[in-house]
Design a protein that fits this description.
The chain is an alpha/beta fold. 33% of the residues lie in helices and 19% in strands. The chain has 9 helices and 8 strands. It has an 8-stranded parallel β-sheet with strand order 1-8-7-6-5-4-3-2. Helix 6 links the parallel strand 6 and strand 7. Helix 2 runs parallel beside helix 3. Bound molecules: D-xylitol-5-phosphate and zinc ion (ZN). D-xylitol-5-phosphate (DX5) binds next to strand 2, strand 3, strand 8 and helix 8. The site of zinc ion has 6 residues, from strand 2.
Length: 219
C-alpha cells in the first residue's frame, strides 16, 4: 500500500454504538478502521473479540486493521481471520521466536500480516521478520489504553525500518499507533510512517472529517 492512510482507533468510540461509529468514520473519510483487541492479560484492559470484528464488518466496507494486544496470538488468529480481519497484527513481545510462523499463518489465509513492537522493544528484533510481513506497527505509546502522550524516541524505529527496506530492496507499510495528533502527524510521515492510527484525536474532534483529512494531508 505505502500510500498515506488514516486508521482511526475505535478504542475511543462509544462501545454501546460501535456500528454507528464505524459508519461515521467511513463517512468522514477514514481509510482503515483500527480495532484494538485487548485480552486483559497482555495488557490489563479487556476490549472486545472476534465477534465484534465480525459484526463491524457488516457496518463498513473499509478494511479492518485488527491490532491484537493478546497473549498467545498464534491460538487466536483463526477466529479473527474468520471474522474478516483485513490486516491482522500481533505483538513480537507475545510471540518472540514464533513470530515468523504466525506471520506465515496469517498470510496463508490471504490476510495482511502485521507485527508490532512496544516502545521498549528494539526494532532490530523484528527487521529480519519484515519480509514475511505486510506491515510493521510501531507503538508510540505503551499498549493498553488510548489518549496517552506520544513517545518521541519510538519514531526512529520507522526511520530504521525504511533504511532497512531500502537496503534490502523491498517495502512494507509502516503504521504508528498512539498519541498521534495534528501537531506530530507531519513529523511521523516525514520519518517514513504511512499509516497513522488516531483514536482520541479523531473522536474528540468537533469535525471528524476535517481532522482526518488534516492528518492525511499535513506536511
Ligand atoms: C493503545 C492502542 C492504540 C490507541 C490509540 O494500546 O493500541 O490504538 O488506542 O489511541 P490514541 O490515538 O488515543 O492514542
Ligand atoms: Zn492499536
Amino acid at each position: 500500500m505505502n500510500r498515506i492512510c488514516i486508521a482511526p482507533s475505535i478504542l475511543s468510540a462509544d462501545f454501546s454504538a460501535m456500528g454507528a461509529a464505524v459508519e461515521q468514520l467511513q463517512r468522514c473519510g477514514a481509510d482503515l478502521i483500527h480495532c484494538d483487541v485487548m485480552d486483559g492479560s497482555f495488557v490489563p484492559k479487556i476490549t472486545f473479540g472476534a465477534d465484534m470484528v465480525a459484526s463491524l464488518k457488516k457496518h463498513t466496507s473499509l478494511p479492518l486493521d485488527v491490532h491484537l494486544m493478546v497473549v498467545e496470538p498464534q491460538n487466536k488468529i483463526d477466529d479473527f481471520i474468520k471474522a474478516g480481519a483485513d490486516y491482522l497484527t500481533f505483538h513480537y513481545e507475545a510471540c518472540g521466536e514464533r513470530s515468523a510462523e504466525v506471520l506465515r499463518a496469517i498470510r496463508s489465509n490471504g490476510v495482511k500480516a502485521g507485527i508490532s513492537v512496544s516502545p521498549d522493544t528494539p526494532v532490530e528484533k523484528v527487521l529480519p521478520l519484515l519480509e514475511e510481513a505486510d506491515m510493521l506497527l510501531v507503538m508510540s505509546v505503551y499498549p493498553g489504553k488510548g489518549g496517552q502522550k506520544f513517545i518521541e524516541h519510538t519514531l526512529s524505529k520507522a526511520e530504521t525500518a525504511r533504511e532497512f527496506f531500502a537496503k534490502h530492496g523491498f517495502s512494507r507499510d509502516v503504521e504508528i499507533d498512539g498519541g498521534i495528533n495534528e501537531e506530530n502527524a507531519a513529523r511521523v510521515k516525514a520519518a517514513g510512517v504511512n499509516i497513522l492510527v488516531a483514536g482520541n484525536t479523531v473522536f474528540r474532534s468537533p469535525d471528524m472529517a476535517k481532522t482526518i483529512s488534516f492528518l492525511r494531508d499535513v506536511k
